[in-house]
């Protein structure tokens, strides 16, 4: 039995698809997922960075995100063998906390509220593993970081990387 | 330098005064702080427990709480010597997360969002100390629990108890 903490955005919640849809609509652009390989949207359009942040930091953005493929079935299985927490750096988007909790309760009803953490600095989390798409969260984390592949981290070199929820199942459900 | 996690309700936020005011108004009662020594409001009025929970679980309740005496000045001093986190079991009141963050940003602007944690089970927090009015949070916590006196815990026997923010200052700022 391990304690496994799992990030939300781009790991279980399809953040980037909604971001592209809203960005293209609001700024009359036509970008796709391919344009965001190795780079964040704000870095691709630095002059629009503040407006992109504002576009994201709202209740409706997080309330309507899709679910990452196979995350529900794999995480439900993980909970039978491990203690699973969902850990989101939710304080980055201060108007979306209620929406994020509501999204979790709807899409991951088998995760109890006792096992949900909204935080800033994830080094405060006392877990054995942290599955996250942002490697900077691993720097001070006392457990083992596992990088979940996302477009923005494709060029980041990291030895412990998973590319899908099948990879996670293989790691923890053998 | 220690890592100190500090609870919100009844420790830095004056939860109970607002609860009494709203309860007396909504249910035409006339209770005071003295009636809640050693007991929670829901236990005093079990038939109204669900309605009391509903009364609390709203945005406006948490947005308007008072600040506990001397908590601001002492915590601001603590941050000069220690790493301070605010850790609230906020998932208990799922419609109040945005309001709680807004309250913290307004009343404790020297606490960065990176150092705020909303969670359920506080055993997940990797800190040296947890200052809390609910001793059940200490059971699986790996650091040292410090009980902050509140009316409901007055009869609970616990060796490490602080009665005010002056006591906390004495413990950590010598």
Q: Can you lay out the helices and strands and say which pair or pack?
A:
The structure is a homodimer of 174-residue chains.
Chain A: E1 3-6, E2 13-14, H1 15-27, H2 41-44, H3 49-56, H4 59-63, E3 66-67, H5 71-81, E4 83-88, H6 97-107, E5 116-118, E6 129-132, E7 144-148, E8 161-162, H7 165-172
Parallel strand pairs in A: 1-4, 1-6, 4-5, 6-7, 7-8
Antiparallel strand pairs in A: 2-3
Helix pairs in contact in A: 5-7
Q: Terminal Cα separation of chain A, in Å?
A: 12 Å
Mean pLDDT over all positions of chain A: 94
- Low confidence ranges of chain A: none
- Which pair of protein chains has the largest interface, and what are the residue counts? A-B, 30 and 30 residues
Structural class of chain A: alpha/beta
Strand proportion of chain A, as a percent range, falls in 15-25%
**H/E element sequence of chain A:** EEHHHHEHEHEEEEH
Widest beta sheet: strand line-up of chain A: 5-4-1-6-7-8
**Largest β-sheet summary of chain A:** 6 strands, parallel
Shape of chain A: globular
Total number of beta strands of chain A: 8
Rg of chain A (C-alpha, Å): 16 Å
Quaternary organization: homodimer
Helix content of chain A: 25-40%
Number of helices in the DSSP assignment of chain A: 7
């Amino acid at each position: 039995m391990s304690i496994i903490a799992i990030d939300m955005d781009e790991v279980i919640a399809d953040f980037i698809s909604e971001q592209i849809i809203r960005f293209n609509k609001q700024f009359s652009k036509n970008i796709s997922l391919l344009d965001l390989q190795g780079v964040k949207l704000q870095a691709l359009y630095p002059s629009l960075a503040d407006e992109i942040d504002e576009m994201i930091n709202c209740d409706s953005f997080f309330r309507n995100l899709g679910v990452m493929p196979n995350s529900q079935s794999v995480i439900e299985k993980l909970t039978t063998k491990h203690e699973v927490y969902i850990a989101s750096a939710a304080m980055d988007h201060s108007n979306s906390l209620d929406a994020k909790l509501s999204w979790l309760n709807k899409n991951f009803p088998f995760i109890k509220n006792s096992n949900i953490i909204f935080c800033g600095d994830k080094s405060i989390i006392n877990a054995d593993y942290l599955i996250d798409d942002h490697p900077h969260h691993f720097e001070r984390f006392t457990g083992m970081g596992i990088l979940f592949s996302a477009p923005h981290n494709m060029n980041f070199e990291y030895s412990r990387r998973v590319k899908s929820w099948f990879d996670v199942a293989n790691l923890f459900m053998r």
